[in-house]
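Hi R.,

As promised on Friday, here is the backbone we talked about, encoded as structure tokens. Could you run it through your design pipeline when you get a chance and send me back a sequence?
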């Protein structure tokens, strides 16, 4: 198996379950906090199409990020730089899609209020995933590539 395919595979095997589970947890948090479904209905009413776009683009972004990470690892770049680039790539794709779909579905409302949370989420997710999940994925890709070269 080529290193690019290994990067994509590892990205999907680790990133997809964790990412999709995180989306589920964030989606049901209003119900868990209040015991009512009104907050979740409001969340999906405001960001419903954008959440669906985020899920689809997330699955595509994992492939792009895994491929990019495997190329950087083959070029002997540091693990932190590779992890940052991986996290930045994935988060840029998914949050750009999320923001664009939010703008398109809430065109007549006060967009400034609807765009602030995704921008904050983009910044936080990029920082957090660089040092957690992105680092784990890049480390695993590096280990698989090194084991294949032995």
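Update: got your reply. Pasting your designed sequence below so it's all in one thread:
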């Amino acid at each position: 198996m080529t290193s690019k395919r290994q990067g994509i595979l590892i990205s999907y095997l680790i990133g997809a379950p964790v990412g999709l589970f995180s989306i589920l947890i964030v989606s049901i948090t209003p119900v868990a906090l209040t015991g009512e479904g009104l907050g979740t209905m409001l969340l999906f009413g405001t960001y419903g199409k954008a959440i669906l776009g985020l899920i689809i683009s997330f699955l595509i972004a994992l492939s792009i990020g895994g491929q990019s990470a495997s190329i950087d690892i083959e070029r002997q770049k540091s693990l932190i730089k590779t992890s940052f680039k991986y996290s930045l790539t994935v988060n840029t794709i998914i949050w750009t899609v999320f923001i664009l779909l939010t703008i398109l579905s809430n065109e007549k409302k006060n967009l400034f209020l609807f765009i602030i949370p995704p921008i904050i989420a983009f910044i936080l997710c990029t920082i957090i995933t660089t040092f957690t999940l992105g680092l784990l994925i890049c480390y695993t890709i590096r280990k698989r590539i090194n084991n294949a070269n032995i």
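One thing I noticed while checking it: The radius of gyration is 17 Å.

Thanks again,
M.
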